[in-house]
Amino acid sequence: MLPTDATALPDPHVCEQARLSRDARFDGLFFTAVTSTRIYCRPVCPAPAPKPANIVYYRHAAAAEAAGFRPCLRCRPELAPGDGTWRRGDAVVARALKLIDQGALVDAPLSALAGKVGLGERQLRRLFTERLGATPAGVHGTRRLLFAKQLLTDTALPITQVALAAGFGSLTRFNTTFREEYRMAPRDLRKRDAPPSHEVMTLRLGYRPPYDFAAMLDFLRGRALPGVEAVDEHGYSRVIGTGAAPGWLRVSEWDGRDPHALKLELHGAAPVELLGIVHRLRRMFDLDADPQAIAHALEGDARLRPLLRERPGLRLPSGWDGFEIAVRAVIGQQVSVAAARTLTARLAQRYGTALATPFGALAQMFPTPDAIADVDLTEIGLTRARAATIRGLARAVIEGRVDFNPERTLDDFTARWVALPGIGPWTAHYMALRALGHPDAFPADDLVLQKAVPTDGTRMTAKALTLRAEAWRPWRAYAVIHVWKASMAAQKPRSPAGAT
């Protein structure tokens, strides 16, 4: 049974059953702390189950650490997926957590973070303590230490580089903090696990099952830009970094040792970029979603119920870069997916930066806003109106009139984009879905949705569809993906509202 309040702990009996059965569906939704050992674990921990009298449940790893518990070396809490029920959307805690994920507390005070979400510092601290059982600083600190723990265990990075990757300004500070919190020196953890040295770094990206990775790849494959990214039946690859210092990454399924994780292979990334890369990929592949909470909210609709049962692991396919998704969205207006991909590929090849040394088929960086803000895009086959819209959005990004900042609410984000010439509600909500991974984005003007939601052969108006979708909040974007997937399975329609 799910809690009525999405930010509350599951019922204690549910927690007990989940930990005893090692139910991966609850991984990351709570943590089990053992008072006799002062260790906290994931619900899936393979160690013998402690006595119930010695168990305390916590909503967040930071709350367990604030109470003096250390992470288990066996189940490794750093590998647990995040809890998307309170980490996403427009709530203050969700927006603050997204900012923390992007490093808002690395070089700035809590007051700056509070200001970005429209609260006072004391209010934000109180809200975190009430909802998560830990302060914003505690969440930030736990996040850094757990990521460092994963790098120490799974990679051969020198400890100095691990400290930089986790956001510590000095090795001394990292060593001191790690020893104080985990009662061992970083080098001692490295000795225990002794990772092999490889040029390609490999990390696990955990998720809660079910997860339809094949459907995710299928969506990305139809939109993959030659030279910039590649999708095969097993994984997704793309160029990252800059033309001067490029690298590449590949995301695929992990082997049978960890059935609830994707494998990230990474080459050429600087240590200080690692945490940001992992954060981007977790959003891009929607790894922190809670399928139980989403299904619970949507299954009351008779149209969605069979779709949820058919594909319970369907996730939101986000994108690597916000500007890239914005350009794709505009090009995709009123054309098919295939046509949009062809035109976007031309733009990338003509105005992007070619790699001096390609990584196999990966040979191209997507153009920056500066590269296309003042060029004649009609030369690649775009209409004058479409070319003007793309130049205009590039200039708006450069000037800061629009952005992809996580402190934006959905209404604020879409309003800023709709204010630009040539960008309507469909395009703005498509950007919110694919650039932000916003769970409640809803392009009500989409022709596919308007025709596919009703089952009597009629077409709903955008107003009627929006009204119908009120019951789907705050997970309307998942309803969109389910309807799109079901519709595309039978045909690939041409949508005047935009290419889905």
How would you characterize the overall build of this protein?
By secondary structure, the protein is of the alpha+beta class. The chain has a domain of 73 residues: DNA Methylphosphotriester Repair Domain (3-Layer(aba) Sandwich), CATH 3.40.10.10. The chain is built from 23 helices and 11 strands. A hairpin with a 4-residue loop joins β1 and β2. The protein is globular.
Helix-strand blueprint:
Blueprint: H1 12-21, E1 31-34, E2 39-41, E3 55-58, H2 61-66, E4 70-71, H3 84-87, H4 92-101, H5 110-116, H6 121-132, H7 136-154, H8 159-165, H9 171-182, H10 186-193, E5 201-206, H11 213-221, E6 229-231, E7 235-241, E8 246-253, E9 261-267, H12 274-284, H13 291-298, H14 305-310, H15 322-331, H16 337-351, E10 353-359, E11 362-365, H17 369-372, H18 384-399, H19 410-418, H20 425-435, H21 447-452, H22 462-469, H23 476-490
Parallel strand pairs: 2-4
Antiparallel strand pairs: 1-2, 1-3, 5-9, 6-7, 7-8, 8-9, 10-11
Helix pairs in contact: 4-7, 7-8, 7-10, 15-18, 15-20, 19-20
End-to-end distance, in Å?
Answer: 34 Å
Give the C-level CATH assignment of the domain at 1-73.
Answer: Alpha Beta
Q: Which structural class matches the secondary elements?
A: alpha+beta
**Largest sheet data:** 5 strands, antiparallel
Q: What is the residue-averaged pLDDT?
A: 92
Gross morphology is: globular
Low-confidence stretches: 1-6, 493-500
